[in-house]
Amino acid sequence: MRTLQGPFAASSLPSSPVVAMNSNGHALLAWNATGNARFAERVKGAAWQASQAVPGASTGAGPVAAAIGNNEVAAIAFTTAPTRLVPSKLLVTLRAPGGSFGTAVEPVPGTRAGDMKLGIACDGTVTLLWTDAAGIKVSSLPGTGTTALACDGTPGTGAWTPATLVSTPGAGASLAELAVNDAGAALAVWQEGAPGNPSSIAAAYQPASQAWELPQTVSLPTGQSTWNPKPGLDAAGNAAVGYLDGNSMVVARRPAAGPWDPSMPVPGAQSVYYPALAMSAGGDLLASWLSLDVSNIGSVWASIAPAGGAWTRRTRLSARAESADWPSAAFAGDGSVAIVGWTDNNANTAKAAVRSAGAWTRSSLGTGYWSGAVPVAAGGSTAVAGWTMPNLANPNAGKLVARTWQ
Q1: Do residues 4 and 400 touch, judged by C-beta distance below 8 A?
Q2: Closest CA to 170 of 134, 215, 217
Q3: Is residue 130 within 8 Å of 64, Cβ to Cβ?
Q4: pLDDT digits (tens, 9 = 90+) for 152-165
Q5: What are the E-state strand segments in 96-208?
Q6: Among the listed residues 105, 107, 62, 98, the one whose alpha carbon sits nearest the alpha carbon of residue 81
Q7: pLDDT at 212
Q8: What's the N-to-C CA distance of the chain in angstroms?
């Protein structure tokens, strides 16, 4: 286990770090700690590097986003704190392979962003997604490479593209997520509707080297609330979205050439209260979810669907003595490793289950916080998890920690 930063004061507990990993097993974690953004990383087989300040983020405010491409290009996005004279800015800092993060730039001047996501293609193109008052927007910085096969492109030196609104105006879009593949195809997903009662799941798709398509509703009109969409995108551009339809986890799929197929339930994923989805480059799907029994005790489950195949029998990942919460999921691009993270509220312990060679192995990672998130990532036969751990000297204080498997 690696301490990333801390301990923090009891009044300044940080959120869990953003966790990213590429196909080389290179882990990149970023977080906002007491008003400044930092990052730490680990190259597969090496020791963790000391955490560093994100350039330009000494007045970081709110969430951060991070991504590391299979070409070793890395990106971190953050917002600055507003002052009486200077409004908040959405900034991005980039790093070419073997280099250092450069001066943070404002991709779209004047942007006021909520949450944000990043994705990196093999040609070096960096895609930024964010939410503002108008809806879900994207901008990209074209890369220098030409093919996904070489996967050696770097971000260009030109301007970012103008902001594109990919959601329907006035639809009440929220909880946006982004997936980008090596070829440069991208998938943005979000929920739409009134706050606290979303009525549909929508998606916008961008074929490689083409413009964003118009948003489409991927959920069926069941009359139930639809929640928490999670995207998947394989190397060929085949897409998937997992989400909650009422209290059932369902998955909609789309071939690269479209259109979306009707959403189908994941067998055994009924009475569900939180979904997680991940997709390998080969098109295998990992679904995980939180189920509650009649006493509101939570359990975490998972199922795998091989590319183009049916879902396998569900597997319970959390122990029966646990009260599990907030599962997260990741799938290595080569399909070698899958990981699901969660918190056991009974013991306030961070947990993870790693699947390799067809078998799940469960681990207790260390102390965590009640209902705390345990973000995970996987790649290159390696997996990583990050979370907030209580400080032993004062459980009301905490520190940020990470663990890897390989």
Answers
A1: yes
A2: 134
A3: no
A4: 999 999 999 999 99
A5: 116-120, 126-132, 135-141, 164-165, 174-180, 186-194, 197-206
A6: 62
A7: 98
A8: 13
Query: Among residues of the chain, what percentage have pLDDT more than 90?
Result: 82
Alpha helices for 144-220 (secondary structure H): none
| CA quadruple 246, 228, 383, 97: dihedral, nearest 10 | 160
- HSE at residue 10, side-chain half, CA atoms within 13 A, is 5
Measuring CA to CA, which residue among 346, 347, 389 is closest to residue 13? 389
Q: What is the pLDDT of residues 336-380, one digit of tens each?
A: 999 999 999 999 999 999 999 999 999 999 999 888 999 999 999
How many Cα atoms occupy the beta-carbon half-sphere of 95 within 13 Å? Answer: 19
| pLDDT tens-place string over residues 280-312 | 999 999 999 999 887 788 999 999 999 989 999
What burial letters (b/e) apply to 359-371, b meaning 16+ CB within 10 Å?
Answer: eeeeeebebbbee
Residue type, 230: K
Which pLDDT does position 371 carry in this prediction? 87
Interior angle at CA 189, CA 147 and CA 66, nearest 5: 60
